[in-house]
Amino acid sequence: xxxxxxxxxxxxxxxxxxAAILDAALALFVERGLGGVSFxxxxxxxxxxxxxxxxxxxxxxxxxxxxxxxxxxxxEETFADWAERPISEVMAWFVENVPRQMLNPYYRSLSRxxxxxxxxxxxxxxxxxTVLRPRQDAFSKMIRRARAxxxxxxxxxxxxVQDMLSGALLHQILLGPAEQTEEQLREYxxxxxxxxxxxxx
Length: 201
What we know:
Layout: H1 15-32, H2 39-46, H3 50-56, H4 60-75, H5 87-103, H6 105-115, H7 122-148, H8 158-175, H9 182-195
């Protein structure tokens, strides 16, 4: 005789409460850095009780890491299946959207906050494992697929290409001329992608 599935105990989590917590945590992180984030401050900013936050996450690092991951998901929501698309479509989307994001003051402040994290930071480790690594793996898979079909050069190293791409973009965000326009950044990205061999032949 098959056992009857048990209904989950307790009330389901509210997406609105989750969103309020994550929005508050991310805003605090951008404004004050990780040192300025605490469950007490998140509760004050979001209007959600500390008990509700503790039920969802075990540490402030976990909350901020999830908030950063959610931000990436929102930025890519119109292109959520990018890893399964032809690389020509992905690069076209990249050229169109990334320059706009790079000029957004919020994203620029966020980049500085992430880079300011100590090497031993738990947040850096959680973010790398839960957000960056899956994206890097998907990007590498896409490059290997394009190499196999002859769309990209056979010798293209996925890991090296990603390191150089992210490094160049961060350099522009942190040290590039303040007066750059979206079109100038777009032209730079096209040159960058071409130099890295990421523009399909």
